[in-house]
Design goal:
The protein has helices spanning 10-28, 36-52, 85-98; strands at 56-60, 66-70, 73-77. It has 99 residues and is of the alpha+beta class.
């Protein structure tokens, strides 16, 4: 496994992240309650590409969640979160409580 390091400043990283996701998030924010989960997925995919240092999100879909382009090759990306079930339950409770 290759260790990926990021030596960019926070400002540079935020700009790169914005370049990856802003056009999609702006569209999704037109109905933020309906698109809340997709916005999170777009942010995760953008962070992945930012850290990877190459590639762009070509389009959003349902299966796969994204089509990304890395050096001219289109790849389907299915977003999956791997988490501890107990933490997820607590997070869900707190999210519902504060909403």
């Amino acid at each position: 496994m290759k260790i990926i390091s990021n030596h960019k400043s926070i400002t540079e990283n935020l700009k790169t992240l914005g370049d990856h996701i802003n056009r999609f998030v702006d569209l999704l924010k037109r109905d933020p309650l309906k698109n809340q989960q997709k916005i999170v997925e777009v942010c995760h995919a953008g962070k992945f590409l930012m850290i990877l240092g190459e590639g762009t999100i070509e389009c959003l879909a349902e299966r796969p969640d994204f089509i990304i382009n890395i050096n001219g090759i289109q790849v389907g990306l299915e977003h999956q979160v791997v988490i501890n079930a107990n933490h997820k339950e607590t997070e869900g409770f707190l999210r519902t409580f504060f909403q």
